[in-house]
Automatic annotation (TrEMBL):
GO cellular component, one term: cytosol
GO MF: 4 iron, 4 sulfur cluster binding; catalytic activity; cobalamin binding; metal ion binding
Organism (species): Desulfosporosinus metallidurans
Classification lineage: Bacteria, Bacillati, Bacillota, Clostridia, Eubacteriales
Cofactor(s) listed in the protein's UniProt record: [4Fe-4S] cluster
InterPro entries for the chain: BchE-like, Cobalamin-bd, Cobalamin-bd_sf, DUF4080, Elp3/MiaA/NifB-like_rSAM, Methyltransferase_Class_B, rSAM, rSAM_horseshoe
Source organism, top-level taxon: Bacteria
Protein name (Swiss-Prot/TrEMBL): Fe-S oxidoreductase
Domain B12-binding: 1-134
Transmembrane segments: none
Amino acid sequence: MKVLLVAFNAKYVHTNLALRYLLEGVRSVNSDVSLREFSINDHLDQIAGEIYEAKADVIGFSSYIWNIKEIVAVIRHLHPVCPNVRFVIGGPEVSFEAEKFLLEHLEVDALVVGEGEKTFLELLRTWQNGGDLAQVPGIAWNENGKIFVNPPRQAAPDLNDLPLPYTENEDFTGRIVYVETTRGCPFNCQYCLSSTFQGVRFLEAERFRHMFRLLLESGARTIKFVDRTFNAHKRHALGILDIVRAESECLPDAQRVRVHCEMAGDLLDDEWMEYFRNYPLGLIQLEIGVQSTHQPTLEIVSRRQNFNAWKKYVPEMKGLGIPLHLDLIVGLPEENWTDFRTSFNDVYQVEPDMLQLGFLKVLKGSGLRLQSKRYGLVFTPDPPYTILETPVLTHSEILQLQRMEDVLDKYYNSGKFVHALREVLKLFPSPFDFYDAFAELWQQRGWFQRQWQGKALFDKLWEFVDNQDVLVWDGIRDALRFDYYLWERPNVVPDYLRPEIGLNTEEANQWKSKQEDIRRDGYWQEVVPEFIEMDRRQWGRNTAVAYFSSDILQEDEQKTPCWYLFHYRQGKVRPYRYEG
């Protein structure tokens, strides 16, 4: 029996962890098994053609809310020309309401419900031996249009009984590799499928070491833990991070490795901070799901936390160079526009590296799905089941929040407007009010309907500022100019960022001469290490000089006029104040 496992990943760089578990399990009893990974952005006709030419007897798909439409479309494409092929789907998107799914998709022969490592292998053996599918727990199946749903299979009590998902040599260069060291979660968040089962199971540290070492040898440099709460058990988490450090330090390019962990903020403490202080710079990146700071909402979704208690750790983590992403969810029960404004401002004010706005997905099987009528949740009937409105948050408000998310990503999360945003925000009562007003201008101008190149975003921000009732623009203009030069070495500077605009010809020439004199000044020999390595032409191509009416890097209120030299090298830029 020839088995083909198919992954539809969100992007080419992603990898599918679930199917690699199945691959290793099936391979132990059947060598004729293979894995193919595609992107949901690939042409479905091309994908179907490649799957068809594999000539498999059983084709298994890994499903999620973001790829189930593509999976179904490909199966419908293949079914008429592959009448003898058995199509199987597993994953969270088919693990609930299985009977309904099969009735709506009669081309599918079976669903693997819940954890699939043991179930899928038993399903294959039953088909191979002509056995009775009714004896296979954890599946739903279709027999000539009649649907059967078998009793669930108990989850594997020990992760260490499962095969490791990465054992063969693959080239993971440039890809994001997903790993897990735990299954389950200590919390019971009603928007998450982890709330559908209890307990946390742990992978032994040395088994992880073996897998992690192989991944590094295979070129993996960006590794993401899918553990729901990585720091659920402190000793386990610290042990895993010790292994990450030890194995990464054995590489000649250890500084390029980065692991991404999702942690619970309220499980951080002083011991964690001490550990981070001694951890290699750039090796770890953290994501923390705040979701909301509105306590009544947190009570409803069973995610009690005290953001005010643990937010004190955020500045120190940033100071240690640990990239930190904080998440909020729009559309949770009982959080209206004003409440979400507070949640947004609470999180924004601690200045995470990224503030990610997610919109509630009312997932099959989740507590909120089961209680959706009680809480008046209106969501899309098709995947990904995105919230449309609630009794306290209108659809129009959600649409505006989606626009704000877009603007937030372009400006704050890009990291390209740090100084400009700091100045512009002074014009508004709160960060939320700025993004609300800015998104409204984008909507009015029709800017969301086009893709804009990076520097066009500066034009949009300046147009927004220009529409405000501002008496003094110099501070904002200086900050925007500073960010503009930090973006990349500019060939052309827009007029609104040129302080020499308005000068007569003689004054403009004097201005230009001053810039060149500063660029060539021997002062830089003592300040910029690379100065002596470059000839005049190289130095000119890799530097830019700009004037500022006030030094925005000064913290005191008495900011003085100054010149800055920006040095560009290998995709990085460093500013140096001219003191000559």
